[in-house]
Amino acid sequence: MTPTTSQTLRRRVRRLRALADDLERSPVLRLGDGRRTSQGIHADQERLHGDADRLRWQAYLFEQGAHQLVAIETHRGQAMNRWRIG
User: Which of 12, 50, 77, 80 falls between 20 and 30 A from 30, CA-CA?
Assistant: First the structure.
């Protein structure tokens, strides 16, 4: 794995979070505005919120993976330097 892989994951993190934000700004989620809405619309709103939460969770997992890749690459680089020196 290369630093480029962690950069790719971080780009995906930003994109997933942006998608979740867009989803939650959807006009469907503003329907009702405190008024009673039909059960169908309410169920759709709940699903959209759930989808946004899952996108954010996936973004979190990608972000953790990116951190782990950086740590692995750093450790690998340090080990290679010690091997060359020793």
Answer: 12
> Could you report the per-residue pLDDT of 52-61, keeping only the tens digit for each?
999 999 999 9
Q: What is the pLDDT of residues 15-52, one digit of tens each?
A: 999 999 999 998 877 776 555 667 778 888 899 999 99
pTM for this predicted structure: 0.74
Please give the C-alpha separations between residue 78 and each of 44, 65, 81, 85, in angstroms, as whole numbers.
51, 20, 5, 11
Whether residue 57 contacts residue 4, with contact meaning beta carbons closer than 8 Å, is answered with no
For residue 41, give every residue at least 6 positions away whose Cβ sits within 8 Å of its Cβ, in sequence order, or none: 28, 31, 32
Structure tokens given for 3: 């630093």
Q: Are 70 and 20 spatial neighbours (Cβ–Cβ below 8 Å)? A: no
Q: Using an 8 Å Cβ cutoff, are 4 and 73 in contact? A: no
